[in-house]
Amino acid sequence: xxxxxxxxxxxxxxxxxxxxxxxxxxxxxxxxxxxxxxxxxxxxxxxxxxxxxxxxxxxxxxxxxxxxxxxxxxxxxxxxxxxxxxxxxxxxxxxxxxxxxxxxxxxxxxxxxxxxxxxxxxxxxxxxxxx
Length: 131
Fold this sequence. Notes:
The protein is mostly beta strands.
């Protein structure tokens, strides 16, 4: 049931959460081998992002910590922008967790190179049963 609920996040109705298709994951290369996305192409509030593989892979920086985990859930692409929706899974009920913060890179394959399109990163939080 949990897998079904989490997998459905990328296919929700417009008023209830992310809309888009599931991302095609890629392996992020080391940061020094990526090309930074210019700040002018990042939507306000979006984290740092890079491209790799000739612009056909977008790498965005996530944020997770303690008991929460994040993963890319949906990618919406058009001629003007690429939107990546990250889902942050938080345990329910809450439990005692460490206070560490991690910034994992998430790489997703694009339908076509990023070029001059704007990058929008959104986070959607979901509660998941304690494991």
